[in-house]
Write a structure and sequence with these properties.
Order of helices and strands: HHHHHHHHH
Number of helices: 9
Oligomer: single chain
Strand content: under 5%
Helix content: over 70%
Amino acid sequence: MSITRRLRTARGLLAGYAATSAVHLGAIATGASVLRHATKPALMPLLAAQTLAARGTRTPKLLAPALLLSAGGDVALQLDDETAFLAGMGSFAAAHVCYVTMFVQQGALTDRRRTILVSAAYATAWATLISRLWPGLGELRIPVAAYSLLLASTAVTSAGRGWRTGLGGALFLLSDTLIATRIAGWKELPGHELLIMSTYIVAQFLLASGTLAALEAEDADREPEPGAFAGLAGERLSAPA
């Protein structure tokens, strides 16, 4: 596939993701449960396909799996069953392992000072949140605590790849925190489900697009400036024998 055709396909898939997201959020807002359940499983596969089309063979190997594992979690969480909920949490946990591994491989922890500061901030937030949620989590205490550590790890490592991925990691944490407060029996905010899904949809987009943008910027930095080879050749030709 030519670059032009591939990029055109990527733009079409991104438009599809945006449209499906809008329909899904509209379905939540209007209480159209059938449409909500029909659109949710399509979200992450569309975004995964878009990332593959946008960068082709240079797409990070773990990005599409992270999105597709998230899709598996989306499907499982639509079932009103504790076993399905745990399966969905496990699928999302695997997605976070993919994200963390990918970000670390890309050098997210290179800046040690920033990593320490961001880790300390998220560790404090995690400990505070878990201590508040703990009494209401019941038998899900250990699974939620373990999963939330992976979620915080994604937030920490995503911050090391730029503001866009960092914001994506933070919004993912916020989205799942809203789910955790529901499990713990906290009073729900107005439009609680809409907040969960809107932050999740934006979070995944920022994680994916931010990852690709960071790689494109790094590729551009590695490319020689126009005329660099010509200038070097001219210096060699003009140099005394």
